[in-house]
Fold this protein.
Amino acid sequence: MALLELQGIGKVYQSGDTEFAALRGVDLNIERGEFVAVTGSSGSGKSTLMNILGCLDSPSSGTYRIDGRDVSQLSRIELAAIRNQFIGFIFQSFNLLARTSAAENVELPLIYAGVAPAERRRRALEALERVGLAHRARHQPSQLSGGQQQRVAIARALVTRPPLILADEPTGNLDSVTSIEIMNFLKELRDTGITVVFVTHEHDIAAFAARELALKDGAIVRDERRAGGKAA
Amino acid sequence: MIPTTETLRMALRALRRNTLRSILTALGIIIGVAAVVAMVSIGEGAKGRIRTQIEGAGTNVILVFSGSSNSGGMRGGMGSQPTITWDDVRAMQTELPAVRAVAPLTRTMTQAISETQTWTTTVYGTTPDYFVIRNWDLAVGAGLSASDVAGATKNVVIGRTVADKLFGVGVDPLGQVIRIRNAPYSVIGVLAKKGQGGMGDDQDDAIFVPVTAFQARIQGGLGQYVRGPVYVSAMTSEAIEPARAQIASLLRERHRLAADAEDDFSTTTMAEMTGIFTSAMSTLTNLLAAIALVSLVVGGIGVMNIMLVSVTERTREIGIRMAVGAQPSDIMRQFLIESLTLAAIGGAIGVLLGLGIANLVAAAFGWSMLARTDIILMALGVSAGVGVVFGLYPALKASRLDPIAALRYE
């Protein structure tokens, strides 16, 4: 059984009388441990696809199963629990809480997972250690560089030990050197067995992935696998 | 759902992050609660003060006034027309079983002159029983006696204030001479300090002369009629109402009033006067507390306003929290507890401030502070309620945000 199964997923946005189909009948299986890049120009529907994959948005049609569970059957509370325990998000604009230390940012998902404070702090520091930022645990986002902020965000995504990491343009706000650092880190994650799906519109970033899905006008126009992906 | 202690920590952190704004927002609640607590505490203090003063005024006291008579369609007020005679006074003393003592009290405002000082004070004419009725002891010397009254002597008993003003603090006034209306009187006793009266007057600012001397030399009498109220004390507190009834029937009989005629006198008890006073006081206190409560509601609207601003400002934070797994109820509780905490802290500070103000006022007037626990608890409850009620809508609004829209919010 695939980790993520999408069958005939469509998403229609309505604004006034006009309808806009952001996704048209997407069929897709993503297996455990895959490292997938979703590419396409802006408006191709790749962000919509990511939102649906991340249970932040629900499809208008079709079925989406995570680990065999049909998402359309789940309540808002169950969806929140899936986002908490099953998925780690990484955003283009980092989305860290301002005026909140790196450690506290990383702790955030654990608060909602009901982990006790001491254990939370221990695991947050462990996650920061993993992204090489243990010495910045007390720093606030404004005191960190873009690359460091994205690493804090990765630590936050990892801290609940989810099987799936979703990254929406993770390098969009970073310079090329830092981008490569971040992508290598995501690649390392894949090597530990975590499934990583990321969106990008840059070819050299997409080249890190072992599989590339190209979207155009809400449909997958290319699904390409390559051995290993780009080396570090 | 995450534990409330966790939510509370988040709330405190959020409030600390905007300390000044939190303080300003809480200020509305602080002022409202402080006003309620101060008003009620001051009112209670004043009432307590009046109660102790009434007790100081004498036990089982009934006041009898001339007046309340109808003559030619004109209705006179209390004491407007003298109707009580000296014989009535004697009859009350001797004929009524429920009455312990009777004393007339005439008064006038005049100058009293010692060798060195002049002081404008109230001079009273009365009998020895007055001091019994009012439980008023002597500090030094002797009191007025029956023979002073019989002989209309120029002996006086003075209050502490008069003693201090005319002779100076620490000087022994016994045997000293006071001139009143050009006649010399000698001080035979000084009364124990009595303090403020029911109307806030200084009861120790008084000179007492025998009632006969008062009529003969200070202010001419009305012949057979008593000018001023008559103080009566009942045998026991249970005897107050019987004594009152006995006085009424005695006076009606002596004044030969027809069965359908109104009384040409009136009686009142100290308890009644206390009741009138304290109920007027309570009405005023409650009115002020109600006005203060309005300011508490205004404070609540301030909380709602800031919480709405806060939800809008923190839209992105809400989106992040939802993305990492916060449930709608977690977000809801986070904002609800934030406004509740804000209002409750404001309420607690308000209670302390209100008690402080009440304390200052009490100290200034020489009252003892009476804090009412029920009002304090109510004020805290209301402010917490204000926090919940006015925090509910912003919290609901936050919890219903769409995570994607919230994450994209700039």
User: Anything to note?
Assistant: Chain B touches chain A through 22 residues (CB under 8 Å). Residues 61-270 of chain B form one domain. The CA atoms of residues 41 and 371 of chain B lie 5 Å apart.
